[in-house]
Amino acid sequence: MLIGIVGAPNKGKSTLFSALTLNDVEIADYPFTTINPNLGIAYVSKPCVDAELNVNCNARNSLCINHTRLFPINIVDVAGLVEGAHLGKGMGNQFLNDLAGADALIIVVDASGKTDASGNKVDFANPIDDVIMVKSEIVEWISGIIKKHLNIISKREDGANALYEVLSSFKVSKAMIEKVANDSSLLLNKINWSDDEIRKFSEGLLKLTKPMIIAANKIDVDKAKVNVEKLKEKFGAENVFGCSAAIELTLRKAAKKGIISYLPGSNTFEILNKEIPKEQLDALLYIKKFLQNNQSNVQRMLNYIVFDLLENIVVYPVEDENKYTDHFGNILPDGILIKKGSTALDLAEKIHTNLAKGMLYAIDARTKMRLSKDYILKDNDIIKIVSTIK
Ligand SMILES: Nc1nc2c(ncn2[C@@H]2O[C@H](COP(=O)(O)OP(=O)(O)OP(=O)(O)O)[C@@H](O)[C@H]2O)c(=O)[nH]1
Ligand SMILES: [Mg+2]
C-alpha cells in the first residue's frame, strides 16, 4: 500500500513525511525544498489479538509493541505543487507521476495561514484555496496524460482498453474506467471527448481511485484552529485532521533517542531522561501541555486512511489453529491487511497462489469451525487455510 503526501510548497509535507517514517529529509522554511521524491515506510497501528488470547506474539511481517500491532505502509513525499503546475509553473507536474501508484493522498495545508499558495510567507492566507488548487492541479495532471495520448485513443473501438493502457500505472481497472465514463455519460467507443469532458472523467477517476484527506498542519501556531474549523465546514469534518507535523516529529525523534516514552497517537508521553538540556526539557513540557488540548492526529490520520477510508481489515493466518502458530512455532507471525469484504480464498491468494489453487476450506482458529472458501473475513479473524498444495 502506498500513501502519497501532496500540497503546495512550504506547508510541512516533508516534516509530516519525516514524522511518519523517521527518515531524515530536507525541511526548510522556503518553497521547493523538496525536489526529488522521498520514499519511506510508516506504520499503521491497531491492538494485536495476542492480548485477547493471553499470548505474546512473534510478529514477523509487522511489529508488535506492548500488544499494539504495527503494519508497514509505503509513503511518498513529493515537491510542492503550485497553481498552473500543469502549464509548467513552479516545479511543473511531472513529479506527480510518483503519486500514480498511490492508494490514497494526504493534502497538506498550512492551517496557520502564514504561507500563501506558492509557499511564500504572508500574514493571512486561506488554506481552503490551497486545497482547491491542489485538487484542480491533480485533475489537470490526469487530464494531461489522457490528452497526450488522445490521438491514438480516439482511433480505438475499445476505448476502455485504450484508456487502461495509458493509465495502467494508476492503480485503475478497466471496470473502474467503465464506471467513471458511465457515471459521467461519456462514450468509450472511439473517444472524442472535449477538454471539459476529459476533465470530468479525470475528476471522477481521481475520486474513485485516490481518496484524499486533508492534513491541516501547523496547528501549534496561533489562531490555526479557526482555519481547521473552516476547512472542516467546507470539506467535511471527517476529511480534515488538524495536526502539527513539527510536534509529532519532535516526539518521535525524542522517543527514538530514548528521551521519552511515546506511543504514536497517544495524547501524552513520559520523560525518561531528565538530564537533557533545559531548553529541550522546556520544549517537551510545552508539547505536553499542547497535547492536553490537542489530539496528536498524525497517527490517527494514517490509521483512518488505511482502516476507514480504504476499508482494510486485519486477518491473522496461522498453520496450527490450536497454538496460533506458523510452521516454525511463531505465534501469530503475520497480520495481513486486506480489503473489507474479502473472502477466505482471497486471503489464500494473498499468501500464495498455490495455497489458493489447492484450497479446500478454512478454519476459524478461535472456534475451530470450518469455513467455506467464500467466507467473508472479519476484522481480527485468525484463519487456517487448508489446502492440498502448500
Ligand atoms: N509551526 C510549525 N511549523 C511547521 C510544521 N510543520 C512544518 N513546519 C515548518 O514549515 C516549513 C516547511 O516545512 P517542510 O516540511 O519543508 O515543507 P514542505 O511542504 O515539504 O515544503 P516543500 O518541499 O518546499 O514543498 C519548515 O520551516 C518547517 O519546520 C508544524 O506543524 N508547525
Ligand atoms: Mg518538502
Notes on the structure:
With 390 residues, the chain is of the alpha/beta class. Helix content is 34%, strand content 19%. The chain has twelve helices and 14 strands. It has helices at 13-21, 127-148, 150-153, 159-166, 174-183, 195-209, 224-235, 245-256, 278-293, 297-309, 344-351, 353-357, and strands at residues 2-6, 38-47, 63-65, 68-77, 104-110, 212-217, 240-242, 260-261, 270-271, 312-317, 336-339, 359-364, 370-371, 381-387. Strand 3 (63-65) and strand 4 form a beta hairpin. Helix 1 packs parallel to helix 8 (245-256) and helix 5 (174-183) packs across helix 6. The chain binds guanosine-5'-triphosphate (GTP) and magnesium ion. Guanosine-5'-triphosphate binds at residues 7, 9-15, 27-29, 31-34, 79-80, 119, 217-218, 220-221, 244-246.
Record the SSE blueprint.
Elements: E1 2-6, H1 13-21, E2 38-47, E3 63-65, E4 68-77, E5 104-110, H2 127-148, H3 150-153, H4 159-166, H5 174-183, H6 195-209, E6 212-217, H7 224-235, E7 240-242, H8 245-256, E8 260-261, E9 270-271, H9 278-293, H10 297-309, E10 312-317, E11 336-339, H11 344-351, H12 353-357, E12 359-364, E13 370-371, E14 381-387
Parallel strand pairs: 1-4, 1-5, 5-6, 6-7, 10-14
Antiparallel strand pairs: 2-4, 3-4, 8-9, 10-11, 12-13, 12-14
Helix pairs in contact: 1-8, 2-6, 4-5, 5-6
Magnesium ion is lined by residues 13-14, 33-34.
The low-confidence parts are: none
List the bound ligands.
guanosine-5'-triphosphate, magnesium ion
Largest sheet: 7 strands, mixed
The geometry reads as flat
Strand content bin = 15-25%
